Amino acid sequence: MEDHFAHDRQPAGEPTQGQKVQTGLIATLMGSVFTTMLGVGVIAPLLPVYGRSLGANGILLGAIFSVFSASRTLFTPLTGALSDRLGRKGFMVAGLLVYCMVSVAYIKAETLPGLLAVRALHGLAASLVIPAANAYMGDLAPPEQEGMYSSFFLLSFFTGFAIGPAFGGILYDRFGMKGCFLTLGLFAFAAFVLTSLLLPSRSGRLGRPRARMDLIGPLKSPDVFPLLVFTLVSALGRSSIVCFLPLFAQEDLHISASLLGGILTINLLLAAFLQVPSGMLADRFDRKKIILLGTLVSSGMFVLLPHTKDFPSLLAVNVFMGIGMALVFPSSQAMAVTLGRNLGMGSVLAFLQVATGTGFAAGPLVSGAFFKWFGINSVFYLCAGTLLAAALYGAFFLRISPAGPGGTRPEERAEP
């Protein structure tokens, strides 16, 4: 099959037509993902306030977030597998339309059951948009450039979600919750227009067609399953930072809310802007070693966290924690993209997102129990131990480490 993105013979330094098309597709995908996540980030930190206004407290406040995660996790494997058979664009467009409807439904939700129903619908919309966009970017990635293309998706994802909360706070102060919900719809509509008009129905490198849809096919792969286990355990270790760092910073170090917000924002933005350099590393060096290095760095920072005594030391630990996180994501996603060429790009990347989401949902529950029984320092040591366990598991069981000519299996380097 002819590669639609092959380099034409043109003067050195002048981009070919194929390169221009490729760049336009990447920019469109990044714009759609960034805009979508910006809208999600606008409302995420304000939902507890909205839930309290409807009478939620305790477990029901947690349910506002859990229902979203459960809905997204339930539908993501199905939408990922279907996108391998039916194409990516239709799922993205449909999901963005649901996002627009969700923004209005939030305003109309005047009871707690109504809000929970809207959150479930929001999770469904997320399962339509993000996995399809992620797989589309994976389809575009040429062999041995999976890390770079994965970093483009991750950059737009993290940047949108990092900027959203600050923007949401400004909107809430001026326009209230209604203004925030309408902003979610506005950004979703902008992404809908961008995707509808500029994104082709088919990307340049769809995975090989399969005779039938096998929802659990990736779980049977001896290469994919260890990657999913590593991702799940790693997410368990990382997930508690957002929940328990604020408690530690305010109750033990007496750091103000504004400085704490600055630390969390710096952490997210640093991780976002290091995605591209990390993606470049993933395409030049051993991805497995990069993943293990990033995991061990994060584990070490969790060990140091209880020993911080002031704002500068806490900031320094969080900076290195962000670096560790930035090292892991592009390399692990690049591994999944390589495997997805044979097993279904949408299916493999969907299960990778499910593993991450499951870890981030379960981690705070386990850490909460340790916090209750042993105190806050035990939470950070638990996270360090969990990440160390993930690194040890990865060292022994991650079976694929494609990077550069010497690290990619011949059958994986072949054009799809």
Task: Walk me through this protein's architecture.
With 416 residues, the chain is mainly alpha-helical. The protein has helices at 17-43, 47-53, 59-86, 89-108, 112-140, 146-198, 224-238, 241-252, 257-273, 275-284, 287-304, 311-343, 345-374, 376-397, 410-413. Helix 5 (112-140) crosses helix 6 (146-198). The longest helix has 53 residues, at 146-198. It is globular and about 55 Å long.
Describe the protein's topology.
Blueprint: H1 17-43, H2 47-53, H3 59-86, H4 89-108, H5 112-140, H6 146-198, H7 224-238, H8 241-252, H9 257-273, H10 275-284, H11 287-304, H12 311-343, H13 345-374, H14 376-397, H15 410-413
Helix pairs in contact: 1-5, 1-6, 2-3, 3-5, 3-13, 4-5, 4-6, 5-6, 5-13, 6-9, 6-10, 6-12, 7-13, 7-14, 8-14, 9-12, 10-12, 11-12, 11-14, 12-13, 13-14
Structural class: mainly alpha
What gross morphology would you assign? globular
Which percent range fits the helix content? Answer: over 70%
Number of alpha- plus pi-helical segments: 15
Biggest sheet record: none
What number is the mean pLDDT? 83
H/E element sequence: HHHHHHHHHHHHHHH
Radius of gyration: 21 Å
The share of residues in extended strands comes to under 5%
Total strands: 0
- Ranges with pLDDT <50 over ≥5 residues? 1-10, 204-211, 401-416
Distance between the termini: 9 Å
